[in-house]
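step 4 of 6: structure.
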Amino acid sequence: MTVFKNRNDVTEAIVTTRVAKGLSWKSVADYIGHSKEWTTAACLGQMTFNAETAAKVVALFDLDASALAWLQVPPSKGSLSGNAPADPLLYRWYEIVSVYGPTIKELIHEEFGDGIMSAIDFNMNIEREPNPAGDRVRVTLSGKFLPYKAF
Amino acid sequence: MTVFKNRNDVTEAIVTTRVAKGLSWKSVADYIGHSKEWTTAACLGQMTFNAETAAKVVALFDLDASALAWLQVPPSKGSLSGNAPADPLLYRWYEIVSVYGPTIKELIHEEFGDGIMSAIDFNMNIEREPNPAGDRVRVTLSGKFLPYKAF
Amino acid sequence: MTVFKNRNDVTEAIVTTRVAKGLSWKSVADYIGHSKEWTTAACLGQMTFNAETAAKVVALFDLDASALAWLQVPPSKGSLSGNAPADPLLYRWYEIVSVYGPTIKELIHEEFGDGIMSAIDFNMNIEREPNPAGDRVRVTLSGKFLPYKAF
Amino acid sequence: MTVFKNRNDVTEAIVTTRVAKGLSWKSVADYIGHSKEWTTAACLGQMTFNAETAAKVVALFDLDASALAWLQVPPSKGSLSGNAPADPLLYRWYEIVSVYGPTIKELIHEEFGDGIMSAIDFNMNIEREPNPAGDRVRVTLSGKFLPYKAF
Amino acid sequence: MTVFKNRNDVTEAIVTTRVAKGLSWKSVADYIGHSKEWTTAACLGQMTFNAETAAKVVALFDLDASALAWLQVPPSKGSLSGNAPADPLLYRWYEIVSVYGPTIKELIHEEFGDGIMSAIDFNMNIEREPNPAGDRVRVTLSGKFLPYKAF
Amino acid sequence: MTVFKNRNDVTEAIVTTRVAKGLSWKSVADYIGHSKEWTTAACLGQMTFNAETAAKVVALFDLDASALAWLQVPPSKGSLSGNAPADPLLYRWYEIVSVYGPTIKELIHEEFGDGIMSAIDFNMNIEREPNPAGDRVRVTLSGKFLPYKAF
Amino acid sequence: MTVFKNRNDVTEAIVTTRVAKGLSWKSVADYIGHSKEWTTAACLGQMTFNAETAAKVVALFDLDASALAWLQVPPSKGSLSGNAPADPLLYRWYEIVSVYGPTIKELIHEEFGDGIMSAIDFNMNIEREPNPAGDRVRVTLSGKFLPYKAF
Amino acid sequence: MTVFKNRNDVTEAIVTTRVAKGLSWKSVADYIGHSKEWTTAACLGQMTFNAETAAKVVALFDLDASALAWLQVPPSKGSLSGNAPADPLLYRWYEIVSVYGPTIKELIHEEFGDGIMSAIDFNMNIEREPNPAGDRVRVTLSGKFLPYKAF
Amino acid sequence: MTVFKNRNDVTEAIVTTRVAKGLSWKSVADYIGHSKEWTTAACLGQMTFNAETAAKVVALFDLDASALAWLQVPPSKGSLSGNAPADPLLYRWYEIVSVYGPTIKELIHEEFGDGIMSAIDFNMNIEREPNPAGDRVRVTLSGKFLPYKAF
Amino acid sequence: MTVFKNRNDVTEAIVTTRVAKGLSWKSVADYIGHSKEWTTAACLGQMTFNAETAAKVVALFDLDASALAWLQVPPSKGSLSGNAPADPLLYRWYEIVSVYGPTIKELIHEEFGDGIMSAIDFNMNIEREPNPAGDRVRVTLSGKFLPYKAF
């Protein structure tokens, strides 16, 4: 087993091992004890684990012990490079796609197989979500799943 | 009143008139008879009106009659230029930000004032939405509203 | 009527007048005497008219006589800017999208209304088309039309 | 034989082995049981195999057994980076070039040798293809093959 | 006096009038009742005024009454286009330069004349600023002012 | 231990070793005898050590002796690539983010954990800092820390 | 007649007038007394006229007298923006396309009509051209002309 | 000797071996039996060899037998990435620089040593080259060779 | 005479008037009382005039009185957009080309006519220039002037 | 000792060995017999050595004999990628920064230590340098050295 020199190497090992072991993201999330969305993002190198969840990840994916520290270091996040929108409100949405996009891809494929969520047969709803710690913006997006078919 | 030479000019006239008249997007949507999300996107030049809704838009915003035809022509859509993600599933999310981003900005500001929807104090949920016409991907995003404050 | 200073101005006048008069591209093509694909590309400023077809365009769209010369000058073509693929075979396909893309958009909208041709529910066929003047590559693309729906 | 750590490594192995063995894409397609277009795209890492076709690929190209899982995971698709057109209809055509471009290159070369499909000596036809599951856009492109010649 | 069609036109009018009248940003801020930093950013089109401060701006800069509404609409913010850093923490700093950069330029020039704040003869300090509403990051940057000199 | 061929390799070794040993940047700074801000920037390859501090770095991180020379060579600095603002005053701020951004990221995470410094719940102050060697621009930035939370 | 404020405006007037008058570049060159290649490049704003040839241009294209001075000022040259090759020898070729490209386009169209010079059915020869003032590189490029055809 | 996994590796081996053996491109061309221009482009990975010339290349450069197949596969061509001109006629010239640029560089250096072909002390001639298989565009470029000199 | 709304408009007026009046930059510099290098840069909108020199500029170029204030406001500087080198030392040289490039172009053309300063027939010298206010870097660049010649 | 496969590998070996041996560029230049500016540029892979100086470089830096040929092959030059100015005169200055920038960085650091040459406390002089082989442009740049200081 190799000593890990950075978080990227740990992420690659997790990705490779998950496929080799045939683990679903849902099962990883159940084992870790967080939502499938946060768990996937964290395993893909976008979030920071605490000592307890890092240890579970090391165990589940048979990682070298040197992964333990890297999983607890705040990683460099985001997957999109290129011209981002300058407006801060618009940018936060671009950032969501940048930080959570690979997670969304993994989870849609896990649930539906290869294909996309349509942006044409699509609707959305934006509403206020009252919250004592400060109201939230709640956005619901619904797009038809369109599968790739072999021909 | 000027004769409109393309859809962009119609969009600019709508945007200018809406602010001058102090109309909320919600009230425009109620008048048009569609959701505030679709109505705003359409008024910002991203969607195509039918004859009936186009006539309502012309009336509500006191537009020159030449707007009537332009509102019914499928427009050139999208607001993001720059390096888009190549993967089709990821691209559909980038496209949602490109096509609906200005709508989201307008509607969050209308409901909350100036500020952003946080991508840090944030969570998301991805689930299957059964539908006889083909199952859909339903994604719910929740982010705390953070206001800009004068200092 | 304004004297035209370049081909772009002629193109904009055609685009504006076609919508104002409610002419379909198909009817323009029948009047000009070429396919709807070539006619649309030419009217959008991508192809060169000869003296006879240029005169028809001037008449159909009530253009100033100065348009007659500009319609017969080979125009600056293409609509895509950005990183193109370096390989010559791949580039030719990128060029087809660049030169004929706006034509494809117009004609699909004319036939189907607002929406897209799916690249997911999609198949293609590549075959040799024997031709005494040199064999040709014949590619057939078939994608489901997906309409935008108001919500 | 090396254990594969991701789909890219599997794709490179297929590409290398195909040339070394002198297999045509047509023969691979016949063996897999799909069209030459889908088969080539899939072997180039753009499509997902099912268990049965993945096993055939592993056998045909003498791949390590670890390839079996990777061939069944939806891959990251697309080969074009750079400024894509923002309009969704135009983008779908750009995506076709991005996802299927390398496939088109392989199959034209397999049929005609080194050269290009002309975008100048070229014509196209766009038509409605009626289909009970939703009408389709059928586009036929025909371009003369132009060979590179040694000099 | 012209009717304003968007916030940009209002901003340009403020910028032109301020120089013509010889008003300092400090004096504008005193009149408006906010800090010179916020006031400058707001006058440069990055912040939203309330009804009271918008009225003061209209009066101070002799703007057409149509400016009143535009000054109260959340504007499109940011001045930097190009590749932004993907990491959210780094991006927030890039955003500060994008949103407040022109303000910083104005205020340094107002205080020191033409020149720059050195990034070489420079030091910085990062510390925790306890706050009952949530602790804050307090960063102090100090750079020598270097004047341009005519030669 | 490997002989270092350039400064980048030394930087990577420091980064890896710091995490493996669990050293805080604050403790490294105390050992080196400089501020945590300068020390972090220097360890991340942005500043030049003198003979004395280079020796301490080699000792603290158990580096091969060949690191000693590289740590004393002025490095290639900056971490941002892409369109920078052309104006020299604005550029110096962009440069601060480019040279010190990774340092800021490390030190905020060390003090607060994973999260960001808000650019929305934010204020700033620009003032003259008198100095006999030439007056300085002193800028104080204060932004609320917003933590990432697992969900 | 308008007073010209810069060279670009003069160039646009020449381009418009040439088409309106139906003058060939060859006839302009004969009138000016230089090659068709240099004359076209100069008329397109890439070269500097002397007093005598500038006067001829003003007369031939009925330009306002203010054009006389602008035609004798060395212009800002080049038409290509984007990533240029860094190597100086390669760059000179990129510069030839940038400075003379629009000239080549005009002259090929004038001789052959709309179409392209093939880069596939193409050959080239590079040789030393002895010259007492310093030997020259002589490159001969030959590409088949491929016409666009209406369909 | 290593088994070649793609054409790039074959190209690198040719480039390295040619310098090590001190072979001129002219001598390689004589051995292969084609022009020095085509031969250099082909050896640099831009053209496809037939069975006979591929065998000569393998022999001349002492390549592993696995190179034989790769040299006969149409390669991915072109060396320029970045914004290409959209117009098809201009693009073909950009493509010539992209595909043949490295060849031009090699052959000018072989004939003249290190330096450039001037784009300033430069002239060009464009003419029709009658040809029964279709007339050709013949362009002659002549630029003074300017040597780099040590100082 | 038009009222100036920003510095760019003033710069354009200076550029137009200088050519119309046939004034050399040298004569402008003598009139202003600064070097030809600083004067040209300032007139091209890169430097700030004081009250006295601004008044001279207004008089010399017959500008509207509103130019007086704009000439004394520190302008937005720089002419290069695109990827700048990240290293601060290298960037300063890029900035010199960005801020002073148009000045260098004007002055070389004024002295030599149309052409370039060679970067091939070129040499440079870097030396320390002792100075009680802090030593300076003195760099001398010498490149042969190469004229464009009509052909 | 490794056999060198290209010039880049030779350059990296020189850079590594120079630091390891503690050789100044000045001493290398004295040994080679050229200016420190040309010598540094050549050692950094921008210039071509002749047989005699190549042999000295191999000896001084203990390089494998295979370096001898590579040092005498004209290298691929330039270090700047991105949008270059299109105008040929401006481009030559951009090219100077691209080709000689790393040399300037090395030599300023060797003479002054870590820091920059100011582009603010800066002046320049452009003059004609008479020369029987063709007059030259002589440009003298003087900028204050600003050191980085640890804090």
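step 5 of 6: annotate
 - Helices of chain E lie at 7-21, 25-32, 36-43, 51-60, 67-71, 88-112.
 - Chain E touches chain J at residues 115-116, 118, 120-121, 123, 146-149, 151 (CB under 8 Å).
step 6 of 6: archive
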